[in-house]
Amino acid sequence: MKKLFLSLGLCLSACFAGTRAQVWFEEDFEQVPVEGQTGSLPQGWVLYNDGNRPASQFSYCTEAWNIRVVDNNKIAVSPSWFSNPSARADRWMVTPPVALPEGSDAVLAFDARSFDAGERETYLVLASAGSTGKEAFTDTLLQVKGEDGSWRTRAVSLGKYAGKTVHIAFVQRSLDRYALYVDNVKVSNLEKPSVALSSLLVPSTVAPGETFSVSADARLVLDEEAASYRIGYRLQDGSGEIVQGAVSGQAEPATSVAGEDGQGRELLLCRFKAEAAGLQLSSPGSFRLEAWIEAVNGRETVSDTLQGMVEVTQQGFFKRNTLLEVYSSSTCGSCPAANAAIDEAFAMYRASFGDSTVFLVKYQMDFPAPGDPCVINEGLYRGEFYGVNAIPSLFVNGTKRKVEWSGFPSSLPGMVEAEANRKTPFGLRASMSREGNAFRVEVEVASVTAYPEALLYVVFTEDSLWHEPQSNGETEFFHVARKVLPDAYGQEIGMETCGTARYGFEYAFDGNGPEIFSSFDGLSAVVFVQDGLTGEILQSAFLPAMPSEEAGNGGLERPGPGLEVEACPNPCRDPCTLNVRLPFAGEAFLEVFDLRGNRLWSCRDSWPAEGARSFEIPVESWEKGVYVLKVQAGETVVTKKIVLC
Asked: What 3-state DSSP class applies to 620?
């Protein structure tokens, strides 16, 4: 399925003859040019800066407010994390003049969220019926002390400004937080509400005669509970309408939002979800889909209309592999339990079903506190692409999933099966070669349909590494992203037609890039194709590590040449034998931990000369799951995973 996200007010059109939305101002920032990382506010907006210097993470904010692309939308962003931690933000963003007619019942609505759920922003919304000078903003419309970490629509009445021209100011007033996001600013009337569709879900490709469904999410502000509505739709080809209809639906319970209308009635934010099922197209080709919401509570409603394309083709499709992307940090208190459940689920699945259908990448983040040694810029940028503002976070093929971590091992097989049943137009074939610290990855991408939004990524991951504990106590980490090629923004492959394309990527870990904590022997790679607009992972593939005698470029667990450690069988049931070969006379210390860091077994032994020894690990009473084997000989440390099934 291909999800099309459009901003509030985009493609606003009347869906009934003779109706017209009364909208006096709207700005979704989508037309603002963004060069590099940011753009400037549109002409007519007024900014007041506070002179504070943003922290390096927000160095792109060169003005009081800047425009930035986040989660495929352009939004206004204002930081509150400064080089001086005691500096309070005072950053103003003032709208152009908004003229409200006499008798109008206007409502200001906008979307806002904090960059980080744990560092909630404080801000004001002020109004002025005079100039844009700070002193003219004497009316406080809204004061928010701690905005949510996810997008929230807020609304407030402007009824008392009927017949006047008003300016609205958004004022960032936080102390040592992160950043405030604002989007979809709109002033419209209440009596003829304008419904904003936030997303439209349509299949990108279907087979001739195959039934499919389309669905839409919507929202609007009313002075009453929304009880009923319809989703209208049209499927068109070049010759005109071929399928059209409407499906009734029930609204979700309304959510109260700040503000009242001119008569003291509380304004409500109403959300809708609607689906039209059983649609069918028999002839191959490309078809345009339009969808909208109509007749809310029987009112004469004006709705956004969203558009998407459905490709009908007789060519074959591919099964979709499952890519798990995890956002975590060694400074996050709740991450150890989540990582333990994810690692156990992943290892158990691969032990039971093989490693050809599900892959795992972990991106370490620099919040809730800085200090994680495994942070890479590409991981931070991908977190911004997804809008990650709280960790631990799990994305399954580009979609965020809320899971109970304790039950994740049992739920993963169902997720993988569901993804395999979601056919994809993309097939992947990849290979990897290595000479010392230099890697080359060859990728062949096949598509049965045109897909111009497709991006290709190669992510090198370190299968197992160790570093000194940070604030949450974790020391062992698995499948951690160390480098993304060609960069965090991917390779544009622009499949304008169906066919096959080939790409090559090269990278040498020469010590100037990310640190490798174990060795080059432990570097594998995940290759995937992603929709650059929606974030959907369309296909993925895995390239296992390529062991050799080449050692790593530094780090705390770099194996010395000749030190060999093997647990067999692995996966195992009972018994489990540990084989260790030392290339020199000396002493070795052997330990096994569970994923929560509890040491379950240890042994210390001496080698009078180089050679191999075997040890029995008493796994009989241990639970099924993943365990960490650690062997230290002199200054050399080797870690491996043991899967007990």
From this structure: coil
pLDDT digits (tens, 9 = 90+) for 248-286: 766 666 555 545 544 555 666 666 666 777 777 777 777
CB-CB neighbours of 583 under 10 Å: 15
First to last CA, the chain: 35
Mean predicted confidence (pLDDT) in 469-498: 88
What is the spatial distance between Cα 41 and Cα 243, in angstroms, rounded to a whole number?
A: 41
**Residue 78: Cβ-neighbour burial (10 angstroms; 0-12, 13-18, 19+):** buried
Beta-strand runs (E) in 436-498? 438-447, 454-466, 476-485, 491-492
| Average pLDDT for 123-139 | 94
Distance, CA of 326 to CA of 334 (rounded, Å): 13
Q: Which residues pair with 472 in a beta bridge?
A: none
Residue type, 323: L
Residue 316 amino acid letter: G
Phi-psi region of 635 (alpha: psi -120 to 50; beta: other; left: phi over 0): alpha
Strands 306-312 and 91-94, how do they pair? unpaired
**Distance (Å, whole) CA 305 – CA 12:** 6
Q: The tokens 């999800």 sit on which residue?
A: 3
Give the single-character DSSP code of 35: B
CA distance 627 to 641: 6
Q: How far is residue 275's CA from residue 631's CA, in Å, rounded to a whole number?
A: 56
Phi then psi for 550, rounded to 5 degrees? -70, 130
Contacts with 173 (C-beta within 8 Å, 6 or more apart), sequence order: 88, 89, 90, 122, 123, 124
